[in-house]
Amino acid sequence: MTVTIDTRIDAAPRRPREAEPVRETAHPHSHPHAPAAPAARPAGRVSRVVIFTVVLIVIGLLMAGMYGFKTFRDQAIADFFAGNVPPPTPVSVTAASVESVPKYLSAIGTLTASRQISVASEVAGRVMTIHFDSGARVSAGDPLVQLNDATEQADLQAYQAQAKLAAANLDRSRNLLRNQVGPQTTVDQNLAQLDEANANIKRTEALIAKKLIRAPFGGELGIRKINAGDYINAGDPMVTLTDLSTLYVNFSLPENALNRIDVGQAVLIGSDAAPGRSFEARITTIEPQVTTDTRAIQVQATLDNQQRHLLPGMFANVRVVLPPQADMVVVPETAVDYTVYGDSVYVVHGRTDAEGKESLHVERVPVKVGDRFEGKVEVLSGVRAGDRVVISGQIKLNNGAAVAIAQNDPLAIPAMLPRN
After folding, report:
1. Is the entire prediction scored with pTM above 0.70?
2. DSSP state, 16?
3. pLDDT band at 316; cut points 50, 70, 90
4. Which architecture characterizes domain 122-147+211-235 according to CATH?
């Protein structure tokens, strides 16, 4: 092998040249057609290829591991929930029934007393005696207040004396006339004087009676507004007197209800003063005209109030009784879920799985409801007679949820323990 070395030195500096590969000179005895040996690959390029390959392998292994872990985790969660079925929700269930539904015309009314006055005097005077206490119950004719009538009593005695004298003079003049001694004019004058004295007596007695104020009818007195010694004028109120044995119920109905009401028809009255109770009244008067501003009919019913449960001035929830409607589907009012999107109920159905095991689930069914009465509601559509509906525990349910029928109402308030 011959190596040639350039020993020339140039004046200008030269860049160092990259090492050139050593070329081998063919051996003089080698075969002329023998293949040449392959050239060697650079070491830096080989290192980069190896590193890149290793990185790709590591990344692939990491991604494969992450995918395998995610698949394993999802399968484990699915197996967990598949084997962890929540227990059925306990609910109370009842069957929809067919009943006769009562019908009413509802209105708001006002209670008024059949007889109620503010007791006052017809004449002025000073109060001498008060014969009643506030809130007392009195009968017709009982004395209430005595005004000063001393002057009228004196006038009465004077008129009685005049009447006595006029009667005596009349008797004497009649005897004289009978014996034809006296004239007829004397008799007439004495008779006129007697009549005048008797008229004065009656007028004075009436004035005395006005100064003793009596109860015009039986009832209950209110709060006393006067005291002994007060001077009152004619018409000044002294106390209220109310007859609570009978009350009037005044209410109005729309004009289209005219052909559905009549005198003597039953009316049920409810009041906040007696919750949970209804009082029966009867229509006694129907106004023979319709008000032009509201187009309503004024109706008055009479209520027997011997027990004094209601008072005049109270509001009344009025229900005019109409003929009932038979054969209507009815469910408890607690079974209906009232929402802004519509009313619905949960209907219980049975289901049998592949293993033949029976279970219960609920279906949310939209319904159209009608009138309510006595804790029940009329269902016009959506539920048929005999369907089992949930009446308590709906707050935990959704469509298709599994349920179990509870022996007792889970929402019932437990009984209070006795106190020691």
Report:
1. no
2. P
3. very high
4. Beta Barrel (2.40)
